[in-house]
Design brief:
Elements (H helix, E strand, L loop, with lengths): L2 H18 L5 E5 L5 E5 L3 E3 L3 E7 L13 E9 L3 E5 L5 E2 L15 H18 L4 E7 L3 H5 L9 E2 L16 H17 L4 E5 L2 H9 L8 E3 L4 H10 L4 E7 H4 L17 H11 L4 H8 L4 H8 L5 H19 L6 E7 L3 E5 L12
Parallel strand pairs: 6-8, 10-11, 10-12, 12-13
Antiparallel strand pairs: 1-2, 3-4, 4-5, 5-8, 7-9, 13-14
């Protein structure tokens, strides 16, 4: 279940308890695809003016930081309308560009729709014609939020209540890609037309410490370089700079746009092939093919005077595949580096580290 499903179920149960006095150990909610989900309740309590119910989230096999958290919903009567707000542990939006206005609780539109639909249904069942205030809380939300990308998205002091289908998918890859796209949306909303992308922490550190660029402007695209470039092209980004460690970006020379090691790994094949083109002896090529890291492979070719040509050749192939992925419609500059060697490939200037000019 998503956090949105949990909140909708707890809201339904709390509204029923408040308006009719009926207490249930489980309720059935319907997601936006019309699928019914039965959800067990944890805490159930009522006083004169409010009712509170909670659900412990079951994330299934998904590696979700919110798995096992308690989502608490308190429902109280108001004069009219349905007000949905966040209490303890629910983040607040501080930056424009999200689907939620600045200052509002970070409860996404689909969960809001589900919550409102469930409590309105209870109002109809019980003949209640007044309004309800629905307050969603997560006691450990502020601590959990530190493990998410919320702060980068401008969501502070808690988690977001998410979900589009109400069901946690077996893989969390789509959720991560959607989060990256949301961060890009925020940049575009702020009027930016250029992107600075880094696959991981190495790239972010290099951007800040070596290139001297503002790390706050860099978007971490993880392994999903192809997906992110597709989206950048779709929404009208005009220019992209990609900065990454050779262990990731060398794979682009083979046309691999998801650089996760579980998807594909052709690093040694690429370095070996381009080294062979430029005359590296076959016994050294065999050594490169047996290497585990890019740094180890570089050690075998470092002393060759044409090492610069090897990296230029790899860079040309990276440029070819990036251009093919974006149909030639999105200018992309890229920098490939290692900590030991510094910049290996700079598509902007064709400049290389001192070692590569020897």
């Amino acid at each position: 279940m998503t956090t949105g499903t949990c909140a909708a179920a707890a809201a339904q149960a709390a509204a029923l308890l408040l308006l009719s006095g009926e207490s249930r150990r489980s309720v059935t909610v319907t997601n936006n695809q019309g699928i019914s989900l039965t959800v067990a309740l944890s805490e159930i309590k009522r006083n004169e003016n409010t009712a509170t119910c909670s659900v412990v989230k079951d994330a299934g096999d998904d590696p979700d930081v919110t798995g096992g958290i308690e989502i608490i919903v308190t429902v109280s009567k108001i004069e009219s309308g349905i007000i949905i707000d966040g209490g303890e542990g629910i983040g607040r939006v501080t930056k424009p560009g999200l689907k939620i206005p600045v200052g509002h609780a970070a409860i996404n539109p689909v969960p809001r729709q589900m919550i409102e639909r469930e409590v309105l249904d209870i109002c109809r069942q019980t003949g209640y014609h007044g309004g309800l205030c629905v307050l969603v809380s997560v006691p450990k939300g502020k601590e959990i939020a530190k493990k998410t990308m919320n702060e980068r998205l401008g969501i502070v002091s808690g988690i977001s209540i998410l979900g589009t289908t109400g069901i946690v998918e077996p893989m969390s890859e789509k959720a991560l890609i959607d989060t990256i796209k949301t961060e890009i949306d925020m940049y575009v909303f702020g009027g930016k037309k250029t992107l600075l992308l880094t696959p991981g922490n190495y790239g972010r550190e290099f951007v800040q410490n070596i290139l001297g660029l503002d790390i706050r402007q860099a978007i971490k695209c993880s392994n999903y370089i192809g997906e992110v470039l597709d989206y950048a092209l779709l929404i009208g980004i005009e220019n992209v700079t990609l900065v990454g460690h050779a262990g990731k970006l060398v794979k682009l020379a083979g046309g691999i746009m998801n650089t996760h090691s579980g998807v594909a790994d052709c690093r040694m094949e690429i370095i070996a092939a381009h080294s062979a083109i430029w005359g590296v002896p076959s016994n050294v090529i065999r050594e490169i093919m047996n290497c585990v890291t890019v740094e180890a492979a570089i050690a075998h070719i470092r002393h060759y005077p044409f090492q610069k040509k090897i990296w230029e050749s790899i860079g040309q192939q990276i440029a070819f595949h990036l251009n093919a992925r974006t149909k030639g419609k999105l200018p992309i500059q890229f920098i490939v580096f290692t900590q030991e060697e510094g910049i290996l490939i700079n598509s902007n200037t064709n400049s290389y580290t001192r070692n590569h000019d020897q």
